[in-house]
Structures are given as C-alpha cells and as structure tokens.
Design brief:
The protein is of the alpha/beta class and about 260 residues long. The chain has 10 helices and 10 strands. α3 packs parallel to α5 and α5 packs parallel to α6. The longest helix is centred in the middle third of the chain and has 13 residues. The two termini are about 30 Å apart.
Length: about 260
C-alpha cells in the first residue's frame, strides 16, 4: 500500500543546531503511528516540516503522492493534513458548538456565516453537532470552552480537526495536561476515530503509546533511531538507554512492552 504522507530526507538547521538530520518517514492510510523521543529530539521541528509551518533546508514532503514541499500550511490543510497542538488554541470565550461551527463554515467557504440568517446555517450546525456527538461532547455544546474540563477541551480540539476532513491527523500530545481520570476517555474517543484515517501522535506517556500505536518511530538528536512495532521498540536496549534513561523508566517501558 502506498504512503499517504511521506518525508524524504528532511533536514533543518537553526544556526548551529541540527534540528532534523535526513529524517525519512512513511505514513499509510489507517496508520496509528507514535512519534517519541527525548526533549530536543526534533519531534516538533519534524511536525512543522510535515505540516508546512517550516521549510526544510533539504529533503521533501509528499502528500497523497504529490510533492508539497513548497506548499504552505494552509494549502496542506486543504489537502487533508491537519494537526492539533500540545497547548490548545481554542476560542475560550465562545461555546463548544460555536468553535466547531466556525471551523466547518470556514472549510465550506462560508466565512462570516455566523452573522447571516439562521436558515443558511442549518447544514453547518447539523454537521458540527454530529461531530460533537461522536466525540462525546453532545451534552455540553452550549457551554463556553472556559467552563470545560481540560480533557473535554482536548476532545473539542480533535472535533475541530475532524471538521476539516483530514486524511492525516497529527496529534501533539493529546493527553498532555489532562487529569489521569480523563485520559482514558480521551483515548477511547481517539480509538473510535475512522479506521481509514491516518493518525500520527507525538507522545511521551508510554502507557498511551502502548495503547494507541501499531507502529512507533523514535527520534534522537534529529535522526530516526528506530522504527517498529511497540513491543520491539519498548524492548530495545538502545531506546531504553538513549531515550528513557533512568532504570525506573526503563522498567516501565519493559512492562509496557510485555503487557
């Protein structure tokens, strides 16, 4: 099966810092890929290169078989490459429904539709409500974002991403900052996303990685250290030494790999 998203030799420097060094990556339709690595490994830079927020010094990015290296982030988003962020950028003063409503209307080329007659908004409202129901947020559509528990805010961010009809969804630490009691709900909803949607998740929590990923890629110092099945990666002595470091964390990785 051909790749829906591919990185070929992506290299990026910031002055003397080699952020990524010839990174190659293939993501197929329906993939569940976790991207892990220590702080400073180049994960955020790689995502910026994939999404068009950064321009590589060398290498290329292909989306649906098309070279999009020179395309900006907005163009890639229109072609189906959508990301969320580690720190959400929701409109906190608006309601849950209004946040998704604006995203759907923007995709449909109906900017400013919020201020038009209601009879022109039914299609957008119906789609927004359907997405929110699928993410378990149907009961809070009229609440302001500022009133939501953080776990529900992360789900709302995913709902907004889905409203843009992604073919590839990049999730930047979707469980970051979420209370432990809410993480399972967030993961339940991610697991329920369409099976043909390719998902790449940046994550530090090994329990989340073990639950989510069918494949894991480890970045260290801007290069791919290892790619493979989760149990293979978790069992790697090199991954434990370079990425996990401490004995306690290595022990946790071993438990994850054998669970």
């Amino acid at each position: 099966m051909s790749s829906i998203l591919e990185a070929r030799g992506l290299t990026k420097r910031f002055g003397a810092l080699q952020a990524t060094d010839g990174v190659s990556l293939q993501v197929r339709a329906g993939a569940r890929l976790a991207l892990i690595g220590p702080n400073g490994a180049g994960k955020s830079t790689l995502v910026g290169l994939l999404t068009g927020q950064l321009r590589p010094d060398a290498g290329s990015v292909l989306l649906n078989g098309r070279d999009v290296t020179r395309d900006g982030a907005a163009s890639r988003a229109r072609q189906g490459l959508i990301r969320t962020f580690q720190i959400n950028n929701l409109f906190r003063g608006l309601t849950v429904l209004e946040n998704v409503f604006l995203a759907v209307s923007e995709r449909l080329g109906m900017g400013g539709v919020l201020f038009r007659p209601a009879d022109r908004c039914h299609e957008v409202i119906d789609e927004a409500c359907h997405l929110l129901d699928e993410l378990g947020l149907g009961g809070v559509i009229h609440q302001s974002v500022a009133q939501l528990p953080y776990g529900q805010q992360r789900l709302l961010e995913i709902a907004i991403a889905l409203s843009l009809n992604p073919k590839v969804l990049l999730l930047d630490e979707p469980a970051a900052g979420v209370p432990s009691a809410e993480v399972a709900r967030v993961m339940d909803m991610i697991e329920a996303l369409p099976s043909d949607l390719a998902i790449v998740m940046i994550e530090h929590d090994m329990h989340v990685v073990r639950r989510f990923a069918a494949e894991v890629t480890v970045l260290v110092a801007g290069s791919v250290l290892l790619s493979g099945k989760p149990h293979e990666v978790m069992a790697s002595e090199e991954v434990r030494r370079v990425y996990l470091g401490g004995a306690g964390e290595a022990r946790a990785a071993g438990e994850a790999g054998h669970a």
